[in-house]
Fold this protein.
Amino acid sequence: MIDKEWATAAEAVADISDGASLAVGGFGLSGNPIALIDALLAQGTTGLSVVSNNCGVDDWGLGVLLNAKRIRKMTSSYVGENKEFERQFLSGELELELTPQGTLAEKLRAGGSGIAAFYTQTGVGTQVAEGGLPRRYNADGSVAAASVPKDTRSFAVDGVEKEFVLEEAISTDYALVHAALGDRHGNLVFTKAARNFNPLAAMAGRVCIAQVERLVEPGEIDPDSIHLPGVFVHRMIEVGTDIEKRIERRTVAPATNEGN
């Protein structure tokens, strides 16, 4: 087996060139591969096409690449916490392919599994299937490009004909992901919400680069505890357990006098 550890984040992302496509893990701000994102920012790579559940916030996660005008296109399911994302999209500076969250997850999984496309009921009867969703605006606010209609087909489900829409799989040049634990062969373990999109993004990238909080020797992780096998992972860096982790929105319940 090959030791997949690389010395630095800068070395691990050095061959990501302008115009590359990336699948990036993270759910909100949970599980963002920020060390790899910062390294990509520092090396100046631009014109990126990024697939990720969301685009971070204005100063964290993928938001740092967005603020630096390094992203050409986003394929996402949620964009509501990033004001710069909204501004760039509405002003025609950024292309957006808005995709239902479950569909996006399955498109990434399918891409990593060698499945070209699949049918789903999600989006049937909406612009997701029928086309017309704005993907890019002109500076004057008119629509420069819109989504095109997708193929639909009826299938019998429990004896009832139902309509489904065809969704194509996603595969990308690279994947950037964050894991809590990994061994030198690339086997990864994710924690809580960070498990939502990181394994799927890792599968979709032809070259997967993972930052892990703790790196151990092969055999130290119980095989039953592995969330993503090392066959999907090509490079790893260790970032330590004290890496900064931000909370997207902190909600505190009001104090009560119950029991007093």
Residues 179 and 215 are 10 Å apart (CA to CA). DSSP finds seven helices and 13 strands in the chain.
